[in-house]
Design brief:
The chain is an alpha+beta fold. 61% of the residues lie in helices and 11% in strands. The radius of gyration is 21 Å and the shape is flat.
């Protein structure tokens, strides 16, 4: 039974991948077929871009050929940290909407509006996320009585969402002899009994100056 289900899954995946490639090949034609191909290519590139930003290697290839299932998985991971984005998402979103309106004015760019918006908004959002991450870590650390934190960049954390399996941490701080690690889900520090592995990429931040 398990063998049959595995084979069925592979056949469905192959069929979906072949159908998507057929859509992409519409770029070699004209008319509606070309339009569908352009939209399919944009979705593939957008998902691939996001997966690469999250540290995906071969996963990016999967995202390109099967963008819709990949988008569901990526959305689920990102929504788990929706509380973090809630404080600043409206800024890149507003910029994206303005850019979409501008692109829609020019006929040659209109069809490529989704790709243009994502290509601009994601690089714009990353520095905002980095600043917000540093600010939150310092606010919570100061509340504990700590004066500095050791943290990875937000982009590193985005690529290492599941850190606990490797004994890594998004950030570390100490207060009153107690070690704490940062949780993006809780947006707070959690006490730990043993310090995670030393990470050479940590950025030491004095919170009074952050």
């Amino acid at each position: 039974m398990l063998y049959f289900l595995s084979l069925l899954f592979l056949l469905i995946a192959a069929a979906l991948g072949a159908a998507w490639i057929w859509l992409l090949l519409g770029l070699r034609t004209s008319g509606k077929r070309w339009t569908y191909g352009a939209l399919a290519l944009q979705l593939s590139l957008i998902i691939t871009f996001i997966v690469l930003a999250m540290g995906g290697g071969w996963s990016a290839v999967i995202g390109f050929l099967w963008p819709l299932p990949t988008a569901v998985l990526v959305s689920d991971l990102l929504l788990q940290h929706s509380n973090f984005y809630a404080d600043f998402y409206y800024l890149p979103l507003g910029a994206g909407l303005c850019l979409a309106l501008i692109a829609a004015i020019f006929a040659p760019l209109r069809i490529w509006t989704p790709l243009i918006v994502v290509a601009v908004v994601i690089p714009l959002a990353l520095p905002m996320a980095e600043r917000h991450s540093r600010s939150l870590m310092c606010q919570r650390a100061l509340a504990l009585g700590a004066s500095e934190v050791k943290r990875h960049s937000f982009l590193w954390s985005l690529r290492h969402i599941r850190t606990s399996f490797l004994g890594e941490a998004h950030g570390l701080t100490m207060a009153n002899g107690q070690t704490y690690i940062w949780s993006y889900k809780r947006l707070n520090w959690s006490p730990v009994d043993t310090q995670p592995y030393a990470q050479p990429g940590y950025i030491q931040t004095a919170c009074g100056k952050a």
